[in-house]
Amino acid sequence: MIDSSKITEHMDVVGSDGKHVGRVDHVKGAEIELAKLDLQAMGKHHMIPLSWVEYVDDQVHLSLDREEAENRWSTAH
To answer: Which residues make Cβ contacts (< 8 Å) with residue 17, sequence separation at least 6?
Structure first.
């Protein structure tokens, strides 16, 4: 399980293909809320589960590629 305290605001989130998925707004429970002002977000907050996180260094690396992450993320209400 990923230590969510290592995930901080404004960190880049990248897919397993190395492509930009978004930027962290904050961690909310078992999900990461992505910033809505990021180009990939199209003006909406998106939620991705922490279970998608493969590892964290200076970026949040997902186990899914960008396209799959975008197809499966949910829009925050």
So the answer is: 65, 66
For 1, 2, the CA distances from 49, given in Å and listed in that order, are 12, 11
Beta-ladder partners of 75: 46
Please give the Cα distance from 16 to 62 (Å, whole number). Answer: 6
Query: pLDDT, tens digit, for every residue of 19-57?
Result: 999 999 999 999 999 999 877 777 889 999 999 999 999
Residue ranges of the domains in the chain?
4-75
Q: Give the CATH class of 4-75.
A: mainly beta
Please state the pTM of the whole predicted model. Answer: 0.91
